[in-house]
Amino acid sequence: MTAAIPKTQKPRLSDVAKLLVHGPSPLGLFLFFCLFAVAIVLIAVLDGAGASDLVMAAVGGGLRVAAIYILFALRIANQWEKAVVLRFGRFRGLRGPGMFWIVPLADSVTMWVDHRVMVTPFAAEKTLTKDTVPVDVDAVLFWVVWDAQKAALEVENYRSAIAWASQTALREVIGQMTLADILVGRARMDVDLQRIIDERTTPWGVTVQSVEIRDVVIPRDLEDAMSRQAQAERERQARVILGQAECEIAASFAEAARVYVDNPTALHLRAMNMLFEGLKEKGALVIVPSSAVDTMNLGGIAGTVALARTAEATSQP
User: Which of 3, 39, 149, 249 has the fewest CB atoms lying closer than 10 Å?
Assistant: First the structure.
């Protein structure tokens, strides 16, 4: 299983542009052409004044040497940069930000170190977890150079080294965690990764500000199995809740039965109320069992009403 090459190790247009920008400074070029123009004008003036060739050569040569010196000696560093200066191969010091001078041929600016917060994406592809599940994890590293001298002298390419250190640390953390811990414990992974990477990069003059896990990709088959498991778990919880509700309803009915057994009148009133609720709707039809009629003594009530109506009709003349 091969590891993916970090993106920071591939050639980037920004690196080439940086080399072009940190060549002769625009101010140096401007002064170079200005001095050359001044030299040409002075030579013409001296020639018109009848000066000797030696004087004209001295003045013109001096101005040209000064122009060439300014062109190669004047450098400008941006506010967020430090220039690493070597003199005959030995570390001379850090220069910048702003304008600074070097000694041509003796001094050389070998590196420009950026002190801004840098962002490095990295990934671990098909890495086995503690429970032997292959996962793909993408993360982002936020880091900053706090010591430009160490970053330039202690490691060949600190950008590439940080990317590789981040990737190996991510693989190490994944191998110590189960899949469930990775899916629910991203905050813990961020903290562990920050600690491990910071320990490796501190000797290089680099500190890690934060690490953020962007995405965790698991195999498709395992994702489907986990989805089915989650659905089964939800169905089980729904059935448990339904059973608990049935138990509560049964307990309520039992409590009501204990109240009605000591008060038959209340039971009859409740039954009559249920009949009323069923009959008040238009077109409703309610079939009442005979046992319910006997229990509520509805037949006796109806007979009493009929006898009362018969007696009333007989008493009329």
Answer: 249
Q: How many domains does the chain have?
A: 4
User: How is the beta sheet containing 90-95 ordered, strand by strand?
Assistant: 90-95, 81-87, 107-114
Q: Which residues pair with 145 in a beta bridge?
A: 206
Query: Could you tell me if 243 and 267 lie in one domain?
Result: no
CATH number at residue 138: 3.30.479.30
Predicted structure pTM score: 0.61
Contact 117, 144 (CB under 8 A): yes
H helix or E strand, kind and range, residue 201? helix 186-201
Residues pairing with 150 in the sheet: none
Each residue of 249-279: pLDDT tens digit?
888 877 777 777 777 777 667 777 766 666 6
Contact partners, residue 78, CB within 8 Å, separation at least 6 = 96, 97
Do the beta carbons of residue 81 and residue 112 sit within 8 Å? yes
Residue 225 lies in a domain: yes
